[in-house]
Amino acid sequence: MAEQLEDTARIARDLIRFDTTNHGEGRSNGETEAAEYLEAELRSMGLAPQLFDAAPGRTSVVARVEGADPSRPALVLHGHTDVVPADPANWTVDPFGGEVRDGLLWGRGAVDMKDMDAMIITALRDIHDAGKRPARDVIVAFFSDEENGGDFGAHHVVDAHPELFAGASEAISEVGGYSIDVAGRRAYLLQTGEKALLWIKLIARGPAAHGSRLVRDNAVTRLAEAVSALGRTDWPIELTGTTDGMLTELARLHGVEPGSVEPDELLRRTGTGAGFLYGALRTTSNPTVLQAGYKHNVVPDRAEALVDIRVLPGEEDRVLAEVQRIVGSDIEIETMHRDVGLENPFSGDLVERMSNALLRADPGAAVLPYLLSGGTDNKALSKLGIAGYGFAPLQLTGDLDFPAMFHGVDERVPLSALTFGRRVLGDLLLDC
Length: 432
Ligand SMILES: [Zn+2]
Description:
CATH topology of the largest domain: Aminopeptidase
Number of strands: 21
CATH class of the largest domain: Alpha Beta
Bound molecules: zinc ion
Number of helices: 11
Structural class: alpha+beta
Radius of gyration: 22 Å
């Protein structure tokens, strides 16, 4: 007989089975079914969740949980319900099957971030079932459209209904709080900031012509040169307070003098965990989509490329000017989407309490500050002055290449990590 699934794993599995694929550029399968599922879970705890549709099918859910001391600023606890596309041909299992295999839950969203959505529900339910309250008011939100910048999700809800977040000072969400192995020791990456994003389109124009002619000003050739120049740019390392603090801690764990080992080398010694960290030290510029032409023997008059650029907080305009210099003045740059970076100090009451919750569950571990190279819905909440953190606690073993799970093939999460996360998150909510 199949083993009974723990509630967090069961809810995460159910959520994976809703195919909430977000293809970007407004194309999406929609999040309504997942939102209604979560709404029912919240309602069964006696809460009064509200649904918000930014567009047909693009549903977000928000509910307020009264805290033991409602006079204190509220904490926003949020997740997103959409996922990036998964091509079943590349996967070992059905990406939307929610299969349990070898002690892991497999499927698109298993780590990004239906795991945390489920942990939020079970942590709150544990508190509810024990007849307790979180230390302060908690605003629970499950947003749509995070994977395409949140215009149909967090940004919409924050802009249209700011009153929902009245009195909130801080927010907790994804991509942080999980462990990596450093020098044989578990170290948790507590995310206190995230890079800014610039999603740009490069456009090259030239004459349309017969493919047999001599065309020196070919738009495809010029675009290819621009794409390769930008894709190959080696952006210099620039440290912020967060990454400087992280490198100092990593050096300490490795038993070397801070500054005595090159930053990239220090990260390399961190094993698979480094996959999260290289991008935090510098700008990155990855070409992701190419588009040009319609016939083998026709030179098109236009060629386009999408490039995903992530920059350190506050560096957006400086980097955009540098990008124009790299691709050349004859390439048009269109900014499709941009959003701010965030950085909070690795100190203060909530940071201490998050660290302590991890250390209570895993004594002897280390907790490191961490700047996320990607972005989260904390960007949208920052418009209301809410300081966002990444704290989706998972205790992991070093053999799983966890950074590769995000948007990766065969995304999966250990069942034991989900149970750990439920416990740590619940513990934090009682003590924050
Ligand atoms: Zn995510």
